[in-house]
Please model this.
Amino acid sequence: MGDATEEAARAEDRDYKGRFKLRGRSLRQHAARGTLINSAFLLLISLLGFLKGFALAGLLDPDDYGIWGIIVVAFGTLTWLKQVGIGDKYIQQDEEDQELAFQKAFTLELYFTLLFTLALGLLTPLLALLYGEPRIIAPALVTLLVLPAGALQTPLWAYYRKMEFGRQRMLQSVDPLVGLVASVVLAALGMGVWALVLGLLAGAWSAALVSVLASPHKLRLRFERGSLHSYASYSWPLFIASGGSLVIAQTSMICGEDAVGLAGAGAITLAAQVTQLTDKVDSIMTGTLYPAICAVRDRTDLLFESFVKSNRLSLMWAMPFGVSLALFAPDLVHHVIGDKWEEAIPLLQVMGITAAVAHLGYNWDAYFRARGDTKPMAVASVAAMVAFLLVGIPGLYLEGLDGFALGLWAQALVHVVVRFHFLGRLFDGFDLTPHAIRAVTPLVPPVACVLLVRLVEHGGERSATQAALELLLYGALTAVSTWLIEGRLLREAVRYLRPAAAAS
Model:
């Protein structure tokens, strides 16, 4: 993405070390096309997940869902530790023999996955004891078989590295499609919780099969001590970073239930799920750009340009969404999800602002991973974890959900400060202040207008119609002010979506 001259832009359209087949598109156009493909895939996954949940809710008993929920929570957070960056390192490398490079990465991924599966298998009885539910043991052990299936889907990394997103996502779509059909059929046959377990396995192993058959490289085990050292030095900081996130998630739930009861823990879960929507756009954009970032990792000027502009684009969604949650959380509770969640309103408001601020430079880690420097992620994660433990946990016990919200704010603030410290080193004194001002400025008119309308209303009980009209006003003014301030960048992004022939 850039303001470079046409001649310079065309000079960048070369085949970066054999990575990409651009087919007449510039790398910028190719990345924009990939963003559309990945967005469509995310929409498909979300739709299938909704259909699956809706269908199974009518076919399964609440107890079955309860058992499955424990398994998902217990294993879902622990599997964060498995995200040690083997795939990221494979995308980042530029070895001459790409088939050999793939086989070495596949070998390490398979070995680590098998060890991790064995470790979780040994932990399963302990988890059952911790949750006081021995019925989870058998389905949990069978669920672990999904992990080796994931390792056999590593051929998708090769398509991802080459930014062949259409092929990658087509193969990945097998998992949710097969999983949906299998789960619903088995639930209709009265399989209970096993419908969820076996449906998950059916989807994962079907995707593994088609990935192996479609692999552009032969799947062979190639172990080299030098490769182990290279991957280990890249991965251990990411393991620590995942551990920091794991500690925050687990202590939030365990201490939340202990300090404010099950309802309070539910409020924490609800707020987390709502604010996670701010990550959607950023995850699509960052994931799409990562192979391109790896290809130009030695061009600091291009890295800086793509970082600033991609972050500005993602903030156009994250910042308005977070602020709108702070403004309209009471309406969301009273008119949508119900007054039973009233105690979650202050937490939702604080987490909305926190999520917005936390997205300043949110995609920073992709640039450090692309350059093989993963230590900053470990430092930022540990610093944020310490801030949360020092502020959030005591605050939870002293002030309930309000104190917990303060801890989340401290965690986000520390993480932003640390990430911009490292970004300043990478991009020669990059300054957070103008970056933040540019992100906040489009929101000044809509927020001011909404607050003015509420002042004129003189308080009182608000109807759903009033809330909806205010939300429409907020959205319309945000769109107009964003276009006035960021119109040039938006027009540039739209140009990259044009077909190659039209753009040339």
